[in-house]
Amino acid sequence: MTTSPPGEGASRPSADPAPPARMSRAARRTKETTIEISVNLDPEDGAGRQEVRTGLPFFDHMLETFGRHGAMDLQVVASGDLEVDAHHTVEDVGIVLGGVLREALGDKAGIERFGWALLPLDEAMVEVALDCSGRAFLVYEVTPPAEALPLGDPPFDPQLAEEFWRALAGAAGLTLHLRQRSGKNAHHVLEASFKGAARAFRQARRRQGDAIASTKGMLS
To answer: How far, in Å, CA of 212 to CA of 189, rounded?
Structure first.
């Protein structure tokens, strides 16, 4: 009589299926802007692809930076009344991007919920703390030099970054704190803030199981 080695011929437990990718897409059209944005928070390559066209080259660079350091697929196509001002385009991109991030997170089961970063870029350093709480709140203490010129062509006024983060935090339901520790170059300061926010969000959305990180049992 022959016997099989231990375990041979027995059924093997199947590996747990991978959780579904967290993706979302949305569009917004007004008399001032037309915005289309899609995100995938769990790209197959773990790094993500970024395709951004807003008509504002410096803003494109910041959004691409946010997607890359946030390790997400990010596609943004926006057109707006740049002949009037860049404000409408920047704010509306923040609104739509915040909305798709919120939808992609779903019920937030298993995420870490909190994220933080202290991000240096040459002489600039920005501190970011973020909570996927469902409660929108922004503390923005980032102050590029008062004499800083608009960046890029068409120009991006450094002050518009605050409007972007306020719109994004509001639509995404994030509590977001950004504080400048140092910095003299407006480009460096803003880029450090976008990279820091991306790294904090990357940490906060990381899955750790299936529990809701709240004593309420939900993150609205």
So the answer is: 34
